[in-house]
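Q: Hi! First time doing this. I have a protein sequence and I read that you can turn it into a structure. Is that right? Here it is:
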Amino acid sequence: MRGARIPILSSIGELAAGSDAWIVDIWGVMHNGAEAHAKACDACRRFRAGGGRVALLSNAPRPFSAVARQLDALGVPRAAYDVGITSGDMTRDMLETTMASGGPVLHVGPERDLGLFAGLNVRLADVEQAATVVCSGLFDDTRETPDDYAPLFGRLLARRVPMICANPDIKVERGSRLVYCAGALAQAYAARGGKVVYAGKPHRAIYRRTLRALAGIGGRGLDNERVLAIGDGVDTDLAGAHAAGLRSAFIASAVHLPEGLSARALAALFEHRPFAPVAALPALAW
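A: Yes, that's right. Below is the predicted 3D structure, encoded as structure tokens:
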């Protein structure tokens, strides 16, 4: 079994010497939506203090400038990372340069994500006028599920309106709860025949942008074989790292292992996947 060969570590320090740069997921690794994970922040600071470079990579449907302010509020210190890139940044690139530039756009998601459109040549429209739908999440992820969107999606699909998914995550932990993300809505839309373009992980474009950013730090260049991706999303963080030719470390969260990290659960999780991480940890810690 593929997962049976994955070592379970208590410290990321065992992998630090073989890495010049880390690409670290944010939600689920650096914080849980309610507070920072202090040990993860300390591990990133220690890695940087030893000469390592850290890029935070998130499927948050907002520009990293907005995410950085949230990280400040949650207690993630700026000394823990060098640079950050989000699916919101990638979405804005798409809106500026591709199918939605200047056109009417329906936003599906909470009002807090409207900053995604700030300063762009985009006109927000209703369901009957929209030429593109940008999905950043559920309107109310505290009570809704993807099933609630069937009537809305039916109206959009009747006109073959394409969707940009600004957050490919399916679910995330918020405190002690699991909540649906835009990826779950995009999955439902595509299942009914809708065209969906994804802005973030696990798709290659966001990794190319992140690797360029890391290579530019200090003008030192970068050997991709010495880059380690660290995340809790098997089908986003780890699948994306694999597609980009990078090693990965799996942080076991309740999203995939609700009963906790064990050799048996780890083996079952990766048994039928075409990739596996170089190690698994219960949390990012030094």
